[in-house]
Fold this sequence. Notes:
The complex is a heterodimer. By secondary structure, chain A is mainly alpha-helical. Helices cover about 55% and strands about 0% of the residues of chain A.
Amino acid sequence: MNVLWAYPRLPAGIAEELLHAHSAVDPVQLAPQAETTHTRATWYPTAPNRVAAEQLSELQQLVRRIARDNGWPGALSRQAATQFDRQLAGELYRQMRILPADAASEEVWSFLSLVLLPDVAFWRWPNPDRRPRYERILGQPRNVFRRLWHRVHILGADLGGRLFEDEAVGLLERPSLGSNPRTARAIAGAHLAFADRYPEVARTSLLRVAALRLRRMSVLVSLEALDDEQLAELMTEVFSGAVRSLIDTVDESLQPQGTYGAAPVRKSGR
Amino acid sequence: MSNSPLSVGFLLPATDRILGGEVTITTADGRTMLAGGVVPEWDYFKNLTVHWPVSVDLAALLDDCTLTSRARVHAVIAWHASGTGTRGAGPVIGIEDGQNLAMADIPGEELGGKLHLRLRIVLAETDPAAGRLAPRRPGSILWQDTTIAVLEGSGSRFPVVQTSFANSGIADGRPAMWYLSCGTDLDSSDTGSIRLYLNTDHPATASLLNSPDSERSQVLADVIRYDAARQLVLHALSHEELDLDGGYESGTLGDLLANLLRRCFPLRTLNELRGDRQSDPGEFEARIQAALGVVNR
């Protein structure tokens, strides 16, 4: 059985103070301030397996290597930022082996961003205006590391890596759809298939419209009660409807087939 | 059937066709307790097994929904942990006439906060010979019931954080006394969305933290409590997506904000309240004071 680890937690008040202090510092100068411990850090009280300082150091080295590969400490282009996120997500998930319940603690991710890896965290998401409560650095759901870990935990490395940032956010920040891995993966899989089939449809719009339809439907239909085939058919129906509403290239002679109907068919010659 | 929309578009069974029994939760060390309260000594390392008995008058249920005897009906327990946000479900079981037992094994490492449990009775698949108004979609919810188990904390208060505003930059580091931070995601956990910061630099809040039982501290605590609730009322009115009939799950920010408005202004709609605030903000503030009570001692 694989051991899952509990991680140190940085209390919210201390995190706010470190956020303020680190925000004005260059990433190169933050590197020597990084530590594997903090005097005020706490742990989940009954955790039998606390991550060791050596493991934290390995994690730190891994993240720093990926950061350097993507241009740390230089200015980060949007493309390089995306590349960094994609390379890091799966590696971070595999290396951390954190208890999922522990990963729901804001204080754990604050420790990672502000104590273990401030040099990388502030390079990826600088805070030059010293905004308090900066959600990319404090351990909230959009934290620099937390959102990547969560994406892989729910969607898996493959699906999670193929979604655009705004698509992943649009799915995972809808708790009724994005919090159940089975449902979220079915949605992500259908979305990618339809986005591939209908490249003229704006991907973000497609997911937004489909998610709205699914959320309405989930009041009437228990997605948890569907078997894999039924869930796939439902996704086909929902994404077909979303495509229909977003493009006018649907064959009007299309007739529903099967329980949930068929996908829209493009007019010939397009 | 709880939390159902006014009309679902298909026939539902009469409420007495289905009778849910007492929900039990068993921990991995063999302790069994009734759902609805606190699971004692729970931690991440204790998996839970939920058993939910349900008695069904199947023939009457099918008849109510104009389904035929060939229609199949299923049950499933869906769960949602407020602390982690994770959702899942137990295995789907086929419903038979009489007593049935749904169950779910829930891994402790995915849990935290409050565990929301929901038993759903659903149509398994389309019945081609069913009546015109019968449920047709697989998974159509015919009946559901909910309960909660508290795993961690009381779940009734949001976190309070003590910090130096000068060192953390809140309010530009100036000596404000408190700051209420409230998120906007209506489906997220209420306690995870709201946080009250107390400034340890300010002598009054420092005194409150050091001597909470003094009369002065208790008055200040009342004022802070009132102001936090007031800010939440105003946050609710400003939130464009809030819907008082939105059917938010228990323990979410949407549920908290909707309940707060209903409790303070039981006879007013959301639009009326927004209009009241716009037409006379001062008088509206006075009505919030009256509803919440500023100082209760």
